[in-house]
Amino acid sequence: MMKRTAAVLLAGALLLAKGQDRSYRPQFHFSPARNWTNDPCGLVYALGRYHLFFQFNPEGDQWGHMSWGHAVSSDLVRWTEMPVAIREDAGGMIFTGSSVTDRANTSGLCARPGCIVSIYTGHRPKSASAPQVQNQNLAFSNDGIVWTKYTGNPVLDTGKADFRDPKVFWHEPSRQWVMVVMLPRERKAQFYGSPDLKRWRHLSDFGPAGATGGDWECPDFYELPIDDDAKNTRWVLKIGLNPGHLAGGSGEQYFIGRFDGERFTNDNPPDRILWVDYGRDCYCEFTFNNDSNPPHALGWMNNWQYAGKVPTSPWRGQMTVPRTLSLRTTPEGVRLVQMPAAAIESLRERAFKFRGADIGVLNAKLAARSSGSSSYDLVATIRPGAARQIAFKVLDALVGYDVRSGRIYVDRTHAGDVSFSPKFPSRTEAPAPLRNGALELRILADRSSIEVFADDGLVVLTNLVYPKSPAALSLSADGTVDGIDLQLWQLRSTWQRSHIR
Ligand code: FRU
Question: Interior CA angle at 85 toward 80 and 91, to 5°?
């Protein structure tokens, strides 16, 4: 017994010595075992599994030596980290891009049809003898494990210093590959077409439009049915903005419109801004190419204002939960809807249900159920009644609702460790009118993050939080509420399994 205790203590000490900060390690979100990550990139379903690549520094926990890290999954929640797929070389760094399945071997790069071709931005920093250059390049893989850079790189080079983040997909109606790529400083999305991924022809430009307060980066472009009607579709052009987001720092907007194989036309006036996520910490959200219906997307859960300072070790950076995307008609127009992917439900355990109006009774039960756990899935419908202010305490932050303004908020101003950056403490909010007199919420908490889905997915707020000793989940209100209908599940960890090679 003594020996066993000593062994456990020793193992614990070793973990601490290695700086393994286990309390903040996401349990059902992807994070690399160690080192720095920013944007997800190259997301694709290919060769029988989901591939998640990510901007990765193989050498440390700050941005640098950018390469494509790699992880695979069959269900989007249990990830296995693989060896680095595309590594920085003497030619420069490997920035964000996308991956496609080349079914007809149009590129001629596949040993057999159906290989994965990844299209990435090569970034050559400014040197004493040459200016900075960003251009588009290919790498391919026949087995989904090892990538080879194409010897004819770059495939698209305009000599520009800022020209990055190609999103490439097969556009069946015009029978060509289409690339959307950014001119960040000019706030423009450029469209190119190609028969073989190697020769690219400029098709059109979109922008500036919407929010233009920072660089435009990380475009995504996909077609979705409106209200599940496959005959009535629109294209979503999603664009990262750094800085200039509503909540401060980096964040994302989207445009809805039509695409004829050459040109995107915005359905809305050019000054209409639609935000993808109202929180501080969702950037470069990308869909998986070649995915099922509905499509899934995930983003980098961070903000360039403080990404290099977040207090985690030996890794820095994590992804959002995978989300399913759809379009819905609202009184204000057609809008993007995001909900956690159904696969999250496969992690649910220890279900707890409450129906009533007595907050004291609810909190006593919640204290017994949720103390000590900080990875959970909460679904709640609340009829505010006489209350004007309602708030859940989640991982030391407040997820609240102001009945008068009809706005939902996440306040992490005093939640745990906020000291590492003056930009971190914050309160983010979004419009979420009551529906039939009720507030509907889904909240995913995972040790160091809170994702709030309100108004049936029309509004999302993603925020990091670093609780010191997370309080049990609880509810408060400034008056008696009419009714609370709540379900809570603990979510099983996928972390242990994730990183066994
Ligand atoms: C966005 C971004 C991309 C770029 C990558 C570099 O976060 O700046 O535009 O490709 O990060 O790591």
Answer: 155
What per-residue confidence (pLDDT) applies to 498?
56
CA 411, chain centre distance (Å): 20
55 lines ligand 1 (CB under 6 A): yes
pLDDT for the residue 88: 98
Q: Does 57 contact ligand 1 (Cβ within 6 A)?
A: no
What integer pLDDT is reported at residue 435 of this predicted model?
94
pLDDT of residue 497: 55
- For residue 294, what pLDDT is reported? 86
**DSSP string covering 143-156, please?**
SSS--EE-TT--SB
Within 8 A by CB and 6+ apart from 88, the residues are 58, 65, 66, 67, 94
**The pLDDT of residue 425:** 98
**CA gap 171, 373 in Å, rounded:** 46
Q: DSSP letter for 290, please.
A: T
| Cβ within 8 Å of residue 337, ≥6 positions away | 325, 326, 327, 328, 456, 457, 458
H-run or E-run covering 479: none
- From the list 367, 429, 359, 366, the residue with the least C-alpha distance to 387 is 359
- Residues with pLDDT less than 70, the chain: 1-22, 370-372, 497-501
**What SS3 state is found at 413?**
coil
Of all protein residues, the one whose alpha carbon is nearest to atom 7 of ligand 1 is: 39
Position 369 scores a pLDDT of: 80
Pocket test for ligand 1, best of 36, 37, 38, 283 (most atoms within 8 A of CB): 38
